[in-house]
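Q: Got a minute? One more chain.
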Amino acid sequence: MNSFKCPECGATEVAGNLCVSTDWSVTGEASSPWSYVLQQIHCANCDEYIPSHLGERWDGITYKEAKKEWLLKYKKFHYNY
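A: Always. Here it is, folded:
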């Protein structure tokens, strides 16, 4: 069962999943909120990479809450990392 809903465009189709490992060895600290994101979902509709915890709404957050967090916390850093 696919529980993904893109907070950018509202689509539910997944193009792929990405698991990453953040390397803080250079600076020793997080450079953006994305530094803590270890799982991402690639939206098949808008081509954005979405943090899995938002796209799948972990811990019972609503779609509205996920969209707000995406816009305010992650999207502005999306193209800078």
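A: Residues 63-74 form the longest helix (12 residues).
Q: Perfect, thanks.
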